[in-house]
């Protein structure tokens, strides 16, 4: 009988990262950009932008091209805990399918919470 190969958590993590990386590759269109600002206990102010002709194109070499703020090339990487590091800033991946990619970030400053969400489709 062949020995049972034990699953190595590090290998599993690497596989998860590889699978996410493969799903992210290619061109995505930004269809929605949501900005939320919440001061203390006040209701959040939500601005929902519907950008036109904004894209992100992810390449296997860890580069992403975008025209979100003028034509530029940024770096990115993926981590096993659903984190996308985009140009040095951590983003949380909340959805990643063949046709939908959603990620965002949250920051706090002086009692105000800022949240940005990017919704992309193919």
From TrEMBL:
Name by which UniProt lists this protein: Lipocalin-like domain-containing protein
What organism is the protein native to? Answer: Pedobacter steynii
